[in-house]
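Hi R.,

As promised on Friday, here is the backbone we talked about, encoded as structure tokens. Could you run it through your design pipeline when you get a chance and send me back a sequence?
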């Protein structure tokens, strides 16, 4: 290959790597020519199980490719037991696809196996052959998603060398502890660990696995809904194991839902020690008092996400750690959490003030907002100071609003605040709950807007009316509006959660 062609291929590779999470674009690139195809295939097959746009239960091409690698003896044995293996007419494949693989996703492989047989015993047999094949063909295993595995005997095939350089692990606590003990001996360089808690008892193997890691940077703990009735504190051992990783852990995502136990005291002890955090996504700050919260110092903090009742604690964290903060997010999953928040107006006002006083680099921002005069004053200061702001999501409440006229007045005040103090880089506004703009106020706002083309997302159905649609299309055509979407409240919340 000439130097020119090699340079082109290297550049193309770097470009396509940026699209590795976009299956639609990757599949389009495959069709350009052979040169492009040879560049895309290794990227696509690094983790062929991860693309949400693919319905793996209805696609048999992956089953065909995997089955192609099985020996004739194994194929014959499987077929004799009623397993339907699709045949490939070609004597060889265009690429050695499995040699590019670095990932196993049990849930997706289960879906593929179901295509071969609907019988549970046959599926188990096919799984065993697939996992044995993967361990022979994969040069190494970097990503392992063990969730939904049906037969625990396949967790650790004989070739344990494949697990030594495991980078990311997703698992659940229903797995037998002995498998985590064994994995703790094999894989000690996991950098990203995601655990789903789906049982009501402790899994001591999980604690041992955490303690064994030498490079753990990212830890996430997810609670399955509806898990109640713990007999013991389910978090203490996990939190204490994380404490031992204080020198290396940068990202923590955890929500402590069973706060009647002693985890509050454990959290008080552990959280201030994780001083190297760059991202903190947490529920359970209400277990810490004000003095304990002030002890949480994270000078490198860039992303901070909280749950509804932690606004006061969030203000303290931001006051002490806002210098490098780029994202402040709030979980808006339950609107009712805010209705039960006794000090919402006061705490949200202090939060807005602390952000504009301490977070000059903020880019993505979520706020819970009350339409008081003081709130609008602080919001205007924030918009003037935080000139890096790109995305603004606001959940506004009108507890004292009795008429539609009041809603329209507050909406108009919000638009006027934006016009008077437009951040240079603001590109997106998401509005949850009570924000309503009259047709006249919205047209005046769009006519005066001098910033970047705006993407506006809202959940008020009024914007689907013909007169609003006509106005919105007008300003789409002249470049003021990039996108204007009206979703249901839950759809908008879900999109926000996915994006963040």
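Update: got your reply. Pasting your designed sequence below so it's all in one thread:
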């Amino acid at each position: 290959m000439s130097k020119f062609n090699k340079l082109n291929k290297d550049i193309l590779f770097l470009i396509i790597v940026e699209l590795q999470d976009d299956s639609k674009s990757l599949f389009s690139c495959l069709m350009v020519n052979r040169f492009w195809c040879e560049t895309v295939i290794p990227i696509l097959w690094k983790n062929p199980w991860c693309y949400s746009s693919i319905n793996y239960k209805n696609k048999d091409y992956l089953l065909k490719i995997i089955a192609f690698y099985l020996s004739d003896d194994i194929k014959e044995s499987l077929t004799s037991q009623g397993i339907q293996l699709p045949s490939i007419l070609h004597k060889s494949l265009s690429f050695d696809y499995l040699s590019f693989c670095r990932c196993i996703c049990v849930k997706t492989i289960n879906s593929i196996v179901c295509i071969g047989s609907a019988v549970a015993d046959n599926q188990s047999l096919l799984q065993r052959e697939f996992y044995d094949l993967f361990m022979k063909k994969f040069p190494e295993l970097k990503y392992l998603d063990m969730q939904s595995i049906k037969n625990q005997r396949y967790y650790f095939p004989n070739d344990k060398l494949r697990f030594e350089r495991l980078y990311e692990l997703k698992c659940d606590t229903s797995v037998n502890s002995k498998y985590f003990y064994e994995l703790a001996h094999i894989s000690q360089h996991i950098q990203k660990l995601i655990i789903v808690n789906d049982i009501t008892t402790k899994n001591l193997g999980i604690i041992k696995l955490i303690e064994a890691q030498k490079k753990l940077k990212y830890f996430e703990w997810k609670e399955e809904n509806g898990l109640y009735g713990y007999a013991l504190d389910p978090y203490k051992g996990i939190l204490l194991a994380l404490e031992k990783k204080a020198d290396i852990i940068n990202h923590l995502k955890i929500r402590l839902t069973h706060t009647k136990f002693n985890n509050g005291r454990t959290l008080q002890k552990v959280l201030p020690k994780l001083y190297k955090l760059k991202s903190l996504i947490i529920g359970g700050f209400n277990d810490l008092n004000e003095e304990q919260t002030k002890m949480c110092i994270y000078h490198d903090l860039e992303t901070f996400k909280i749950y509804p009742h932690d606004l006061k604690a969030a203000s303290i964290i931001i006051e002490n750690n806002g210098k490098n903060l780029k994202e402040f997010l709030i979980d808006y999953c339950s609107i009712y959490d805010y209705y039960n928040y006794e000090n919402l107006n006061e705490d949200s006002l202090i939060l807005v003030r602390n952000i504009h006083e301490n977070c000059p680099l903020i880019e993505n921002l979520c706020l819970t907002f009350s339409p008081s005069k003081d709130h609008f004053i602080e919001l205007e200061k924030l918009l003037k100071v935080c000139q890096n702001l790109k995305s603004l999501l606001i959940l506004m409440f009108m507890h004292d609003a009795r008429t539609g006229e009041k809603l329209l007045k507050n909406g108009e005040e919000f638009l006027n605040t934006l016009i008077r103090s437009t951040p240079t880089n603001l590109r997106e506004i998401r509005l949850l709950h009570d924000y309503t703009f009259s047709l006249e106020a919205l047209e005046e706002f769009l006519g005066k807007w001098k910033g970047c083309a705006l993407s506006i997302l809202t959940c008020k159905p009024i914007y689907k009316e013909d007169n609003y649609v006509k106005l919105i299309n007008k300003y789409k055509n002249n470049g003021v509006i990039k996108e204007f979407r009206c979703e249901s409240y839950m759809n908008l919340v879900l999109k926000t959660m996915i994006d963040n």
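One thing I noticed while checking it: The chain is about 45% helix and 15% strand.

Thanks again,
M.
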